[in-house]
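#onboarding

Welcome to the new folks! Below is a worked example of what a typical request in this channel looks like: someone posts a single protein sequence, and someone else replies with the predicted structure as tokens. Don't worry about understanding the tokens yet, we'll cover that in week two.

Example request:
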Amino acid sequence: MADNTRYDPCLTAFWLSGSMVIVITVLALLSIAVPELSDLSHLASVATESGVIEAILITMAAALVAVLFLVIFCTPLAYVLARTTSRWKGIVENLVDIPLVLPHTVAGLMVYLLFMSRGPLGAPFKSVGIVFEDAFFGIVVAMMFVSSPYYINAVREGFEKVPVHLENVARTLGATRFYAFRSITLPLSTRHLLSGSFLAWGRAVGEFAAVVMIAYFPMVVSTLIYQRFTTGGLAESRSVAFIMIIICIVVFIGFRWITRAAGGQKHDRA
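Example response:
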């Protein structure tokens, strides 16, 4: 067994090289935090503005709805990709990953062309009263499109880690595939489901270009920060950004606690 207390030049070099990213992140946070914390009265006034509160609530709500839709529609797809092999599987996987490599403006243009009032999907929805242009659901579909690969890939990895023979045993005892999926595979993949949901939520919250191309209004936080930066300058946009950083840090801490609890429960069941 290796002695971790001994000096290891390789690990030291790795720490030094990797610490560059940490240093840049810390400096970036300080560049926003220090000016804001030195003027708490201005920060408080920005935080209580109705426009800022509305943008934050819309961002959080739209991202949550996008993740809920991903859970409903993409969990089955992740399971199929994890459990089947066919010549079409590679094509489907490539299609799933397309939003990862697209420039955000291209993704936004694709969403707009599809869901605009005259689009292939926008027109039928408009006929029943659902509009996507400059509307809440336009924000949701843009967030869904750009965040779907994060959810699908994370959940698929979780399903792949569940031994197939556990499902096979359940099926030999008379369980249907869906029952085996619901009672065995899904609970054992809880941590990956939570991780995929959080990754998708984070990606959705941070999206700007795809959202702004279909729905400039109502404003999400990223749109509001851009609008404040172009009209009010650095001070106005920095305050909104700092508020959002604090919210995201709180959410991240809560997520880490939930995933640890889920992991502990899984070990208890085992």
